[in-house]
């Protein structure tokens, strides 16, 4: 009996392992171009890992070779540890040119022991001003965590470790521009922004602590590549769930929890800033 039940257990574990094994990530060599910082951006481990560094002369960054029109974009990041004040690490989507669209994750560093701020924003046709900021429920410098942007025709969803933290719905019917026709690339960077980033610019980058380094891995895009077919880079199973992904009841509970416990700024609550009334979408969505 003991034997057969442990066999069962092994079989059950194998099955579980098969189910939870993440699909292999795309190679940074194949998917990305280094855009600035030269040697400060390093791809290693056969294309699986990428690190960006910042010193007092320059930061560094990269961008995707492909342009996309809608998709799900996952990246694992491990942020600059200890005294990261003044540094900004980014992972975002952006189109080019005037009237651009953009979907942002930005990670604002802090002094040792003080929390990072996760800054999110959406630009449509050149206009942003839709910031939401969060503190995290974990230390983003201790281990890799997954940051995800889902972008489909109905909504944009920001997820952290698969927990939705923000949704920006398409309210075009009410006259709110929504990014849906300009192709975007994936971008990432590490740069110095000590004129504004940490505690409103009061805390400066301590260059004696440099160079500062942030780590990226497991990039995956399940996305429509412009000029190509709908393609899932790196994953064997083409998962198209993002095309209609929405926030279900469980997701709503998660967003409520994040917004109640971890949100530190929401433009939709900033009556001082929008003296002539909150933006239209703020009055229409329950979860922004
Ligand atoms: C830094 O830490 C302070 C609290 O010590 C916090 O108010 C602030 O939001 C944190 N983040 C930034 C980017 O300043």
TrEMBL record:
Q: Give the family from UniProt.
A: Belongs to the glycosyl hydrolase 16 family.
Ranges for domain GH16 come to 3-216
Pfam families per UniProt: Glyco_hydro_16, XET_C
From the Swiss-Prot or TrEMBL record, state where the protein is found.
Answer: Secreted, Cell wall; Secreted, Extracellular space, Apoplast
Q: Which residues are glycosylated?
A: 110
Entry-linked InterPro entries: Beta-glucanase-like (IPR000757), Beta-glucanase/XTH (IPR044791), ConA-like_dom_sf (IPR013320), GH16_AS (IPR008263), XET_C (IPR010713), XTH (IPR016455)
Recorded source organism is: Tagetes erecta (African marigold)
UniProt protein name: Xyloglucan endotransglucosylase/hydrolase
Spell out the post-translational modification annotation for this entry.
Answer: Contains at least one intrachain disulfide bond essential for its enzymatic activity.
Biological role stated in the UniProt entry: Catalyzes xyloglucan endohydrolysis (XEH) and/or endotransglycosylation (XET). Cleaves and religates xyloglucan polymers, an essential constituent of the primary cell wall, and thereby participates in cell wall construction of growing tissues.
Its taxonomic placement starts with:
Eukaryota, Viridiplantae, Streptophyta, Embryophyta, Tracheophyta
Q: Which UniProt keywords apply?
A: Apoplast, Cell wall, Cell wall biogenesis/degradation, Disulfide bond, Glycoprotein, Glycosidase, Hydrolase, Secreted, Signal, Transferase
């Amino acid at each position: 009996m003991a034997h057969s039940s442990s066999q069962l257990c092994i079989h059950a574990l194998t099955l579980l392992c098969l189910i939870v094994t993440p699909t292999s990530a795309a190679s940074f060599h194949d998917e990305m171009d280094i855009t600035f910082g030269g040697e400060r951006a390093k791809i290693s481990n056969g294309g699986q890992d990428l690190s960006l560094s910042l010193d007092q002369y320059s930061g560094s960054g990269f961008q995707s070779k492909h342009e996309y029109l809608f998709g799900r974009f996952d990246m694992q990041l491990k942020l600059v540890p200890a005294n990261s004040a003044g540094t900004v690490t980014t992972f975002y989507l952006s189109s080019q040119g005037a009237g651009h669209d953009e979907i942002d994750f930005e990670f604002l560093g802090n002094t040792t022991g003080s929390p990072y701020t996760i800054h999110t924003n959406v630009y449509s046709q050149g206009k942003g001003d839709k910031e939401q900021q969060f503190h995290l429920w974990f230390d983003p410098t201790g281990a890799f965590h997954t940051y995800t942007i889902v972008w489909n025709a109905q909504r944009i969803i920001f997820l952290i470790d698969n927990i939705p933290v923000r949704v920006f719905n398409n309210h075009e019917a009410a006259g709110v521009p929504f990014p849906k026709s300009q192709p975007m690339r994936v971008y990432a960077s590490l740069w110095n922004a000590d004129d504004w980033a940490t505690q409103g610019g009061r805390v400066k980058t301590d260059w004696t602590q440099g160079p500062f380094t942030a780590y990226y891995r497991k990039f995956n895009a399940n996305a429509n590549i412009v000029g190509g077919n709908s393609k899932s880079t790196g994953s064997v199973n083409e998962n198209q769930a993002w095309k209609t992904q929405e926030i279900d009841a469980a997701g709503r509970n998660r967003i409520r929890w994040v917004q109640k416990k971890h949100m530190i700024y929401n433009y939709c609550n900033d009556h001082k800033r929008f003296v002539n009334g909150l933006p239209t979408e703020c009055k229409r969505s329950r979860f922004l």
